Prior knowledge:
The structure holds two protein chains of two kinds.
Chain A: H1 2-22, H2 27-51, E1 55-61, E2 64-70, H3 72-95, H4 104-124, H5 128-146, H6 153-184, H7 198-216, H8 225-231, H9 234-258, H10 264-287, H11 291-318, H12 322-357, H13 368-371, H14 373-386, H15 393-411, H16 417-443, H17 450-453, H18 460-478, H19 484-494, H20 501-531, H21 564-572, E3 578-582, E4 595-599, H22 602-619, H23 630-658
Helix pairs in contact in A: 1-2, 1-4, 2-3, 3-4, 3-9, 3-12, 3-18, 4-5, 4-9, 5-6, 5-9, 6-7, 6-8, 7-9, 8-9, 8-11, 9-11, 9-12, 10-11, 10-16, 10-21, 11-12, 11-15, 11-16, 12-14, 12-15, 12-18, 12-19, 14-16, 14-18, 15-16, 15-18, 19-20
Chain B: H1 2-19, H2 23-39, H3 50-78, H4 90-110, H5 122-139, H6 143-162, H7 169-198
Amino acid sequence: MLALYFVLLGAALWLGSGFAALGRPSERTALPLSLLGSLLGVVGAVLCLVQGGAGSLDFHFAGFPARLAIDALSAAFLLPLHLVAGLGALYGSSYWPLDSPKGTGRSLRFFFALLVAAMSLVFLTRQGIFFLLAWEVMAVSAFFLISTNHEDASVRRAAWVYLVATHMGTLILTAMLILLARRCGGWLWGPILGAAAPKLDVAILVLAILGFGFKAGWIPFHFWLPAAHAGAPSHVSAILSAVMLKTGIYGVLRISGFLPRIPIGVGGVLLLLGAATALYGVFYALAERDFKRLLAYSSIENLGVIGMGIGLGLTGRATHDSWLAALGFGAALLHVWNHAAFKSLLFFGAGSVLHATGTRDMEVLGGLASRMPRTVRMLFPGVLAVAALPPFGAFVSEWVLYRGLFAALMRGYPWTAGLALPALALVGGLAAVAFAKFFGIIFLGSPRSAAAEKAHDPHLPMLIPMGILAVLCLALGLGSAWLLPGLDRVVVVLAPGVSGQLAASLGFELRMIGGFGGALILVGGLAWLWVGRPGKRKNPQLAPNQPTWGCGYSAPSVRMQYSAESFSEGWANLLPGRRIRMRRLKAIFPTPSTFHLELSDSVGLGFLEPRVERLANRALWFRRLQPGFLTIYLLYVLLALLGVFLWMLARPWLLPLLGWSA
Amino acid sequence: MIHDILITLTVLTNFTLVATSRVNKSIQVAAFQGVLLGLLPLTLGLGFHIHILLMAVAAVVVKGWFIPFLLRRALAKVHIHREVHPYIGYTVSLMLCALGTGMSIVLAHNLPLKPGGPFALFVPAALATLFTGFLLLVSRRKAITQVVGYLVLENGIYLFGLMLIGDMPLLVETGILLDLFVGIFVMGIVINHISVAFDSMDTRQLAELKD
């Protein structure tokens, strides 16, 4: 109960900070308020996870019974929310100053705070209508955040596409919640008792997966995501990617938790959907040259991985296989936490680079490691984590997922695990390549433009959040064994009857992984100290300041370096939606030539956009109904009136014909 | 007895309105219809309560004098005497009006309303007047005749509202007056603006404003 009050107070403080940002003394009140709110939120969530206490608050609002409740599942999502939000507010205070032109600084702070408060409510509400309200406030404030930089046409477009996509999702969710209300016998949510209704349950679950899938960015509903996350200010991208996408995950978990029986096929299909999403995301991340879009595609990949975990967990519940359920849900949640940590770190780092250079194009960057040394040191753990390398957290969560997939293979269900397993392996490998490109092209080599040449480290408020997250990424990997009891509490909410399995069975393995990781770091650190010990002679033959990829040429140029495109050429060639325009080189002494490459999302731009455009063109026909004559409009009113009259006249005869009572 | 006569006269004025081509005459007839309807509350046998008196006086003054006065003034300014080339001709309008009146009677008989009382003719007459108002609005070209149509439409709604007079007179009064005020206000602005912007009162010109 205490936890619930803490979180509610935290959300209220955030809301207050939002309004404070609009007022006069703004930053000096708003920032401490939001930091305090986040602190309270984190404390509340941790309390709930550690003690396992659930609390709920029933009240009536505008005549509706409403309920706010916290349990381990809510806390598992509230924790990353308030962590990333607090760090994001700190980061944003320097990244997007309050007195930025055209008042965007104020509106950004206001909607950021509104987003955090609304998301807290999304995780706490246990009533259909209030859930939808909180969901809408969240979606709309995210729209305003994405369109912060609205002078840019591409940002405006991204924001509109996002708004349409999120409302498509909301539409489906509304249908789902109505069905759920029928099943629960009221808008209040609770475990469904009573008679089985398999068809209704399947409908609810499928609608939930579709509706929340829009938010979670599972293909084919991901099309809004890359542009929206790339166009938003970086700390907003961080919270959108690290937390708001997870509201979709939370929704699927929460709704499926209510259903008494899960149909068997759904888990397997979701597993396959997750695998496809992860593969799609990682392939596009590999080919992307805009580094924020790359991170956004990597978010799609990670959400796919989380979806695979949920698919396994649902199969476990459907077959009453508690071990499979624990592994699947456990892997999904662990990855939710890890992804929140490393992706917000990466977006903060990307923001620092953007702040310093003013471009999102990797092809004009390079050599930032020597110009932004602190940023690189903070960011590097994030890069290792996203590539799922030990000893960082993502390795552990993918490892738990592997355990689950192998367990599924042993049992023979769901058979899609056989496809998901190699997909996951491929995803891990390609993610490593994609982030080798991300890090190598941006930070290593020589600068490819004047902007990169003059880059510098950001101020302390931007570095501190990155430092905290970098430590967290490592801590999540080394200390993963201590997370298991909390994770078990969440799994119990999702799959009743499974208690303490993860801590009992995985504790030893994770301690081993953590121990080996710690040892690795220790040895590595000692080796580094030994290599860099004072008094060691420098190799005199090593020429100073040779450019990277100089290859011993006498006059190396920066254009001899690997470019982002050339680095991923081999894999990215496979992608549809990748168009190359180049003049073929002829003759022995060719004239200057050009090379142009563009990459478009094959589902969003390639498939959906022409169809939507055609539909919009067809819909133009309806404009003929609006000729501009007042009399015609009045005629419409008259016809409608006559129609109603005729209907009233014909009703007594028509209804019995259709078999209804009048 | 008297109210039946008044209502019958109202329906007859509908026909006159639809068939007339002179703008001046249609304003006159609309004013007459307003006076008829204004007198109607006094004949319902509800006594001479202050509310009812007030409402009758307000309706007679506004519908019978004030609005026609405004319309005549507008007419004097723009020099229009006849509605030429309406969208729907006078004979056809008359037939449509008759059809609408007949249909209103059929409909009123089939509506689940409380039977008996002094209101037997109210519903069909109200629907017929409403329909006539719409017909005028749709079929006429000049803004000023459209205002007359709007006035007739209002009269239909007023007639409908009169059925509730015994139960909630004040509400009916305020509602009707507000409706009238808003309607005339809007149309006044429209007339003024069309004649200023296009130097004409033909509503076809408004199509230029289409998005």
